Amino acid sequence: MKVVAETLGVSRSNLHARLTGSAKPRRRYHKAQDAAVLPLITALVAARPTYGYRRITALLNRQLRAEGAAPINHKRVYRIMQAHSLLLARRYTERPELTHEGKVVTMRSNIRWCSDGFEFTCWNREIVRGAFIVDAHDREIISWRAVVNAGISGSDIRDMMLEAVEQRFGTYRAPHPVEILSDNGSPYIAKETRIFARQLGLKPCFTPVKSPQSNGISEAFVKTLKRDYVHVTPLPDAATVLELIAGWFEDYNDNHPHSGLKMRSPRDFIAAQTATA
User: Fold this and answer.
1) 3-class SS of residue 58
2) Where is the Integrase catalytic domain positioned along the sequence (predicted)?
3) pLDDT range class, residue 98, cuts 50, 70, 90
4) First-to-last CA distance in the chain?
5) Kind plus residue range of the DSSP H or E element containing 160
6) CB atoms within 10 A of CB 48
């Protein structure tokens, strides 16, 4: 039996148990409390079908803490979701050859803002285009604009900048220089936009040509917007989208768990920062 065990690469005790039938069949590991957690996880997955197990864990623990219950480990959530076929399908994507080595994220809020545009088509072929400003530290969407069957203009970008300054500082001028990073689109590089930005206390910065990775925070948000909202929502026409889009941004700011914020939403992260300041 020793030679057979060594050939098969198993222990002699294991081989003996199999031959005699004394080995107990292994069952899937579970805890008694899993039955109480499963309905909560199922409801979250139904409401957020694009969320993976880590973001589901963050939302679940947020709910459990609000009810005075103890949070649970993400590995347990993964096991429960795997057992009930609730995990997202794995997707293979190749890494781009052009990588960005710079650091866009800042150590504090209101040091660098990032801006970019987005576009998607409604079922009736109407096109919705928009732009937004996001903080490079806390990831909150500070201001945004959306138009139908037209392009975002320099005037839209300037209005968005003014709204962002008023939203963050309660005045029409930033108390210290704030970088605003964008691509080289005509609304951003327009002379009027650059002059207006400096009047607000903003410092315009532009990414290198053909280097979207240099504005990775904005690119990541556009991906999240399309994955978690656009692609899972009926979009019959632009009028419907314009009624929904404000709620999408609010939901993102209030609820979306972000890995860079230790799975907290942007506004939860801001609130925690304010409490410790």
Assistant:
1) helix
2) 92-274
3) very low
4) 68
5) helix 154-169
6) 18
**pLDDT (tens digit, 9 = 90+) per residue, 220-269?**
999 999 999 999 999 999 999 999 999 999 999 999 999 889 999 999 99
Q: Mean pLDDT score of the chain, rounded to an integer?
A: 88
Residues ≥6 apart with Cβ < 8 Å to 249: 132, 141, 144
What kind of architecture, by CATH, is found in domain 112-275?
2-Layer Sandwich (3.30)
- Helix (H), strand (E) at residue 179: strand 178-182
Cα–Cα distance for residue pair 251/245, rounded to 1 Å: 10
Beta strands in 12-170 (DSSP E): 112-121, 127-135, 141-148
* DSSP secondary structure letters along 106-144: -SSTTSEEEEEEEEEE-TTS-EEEEEEEEETTT--EEEE
> What pLDDT shows up at residue 57?
94
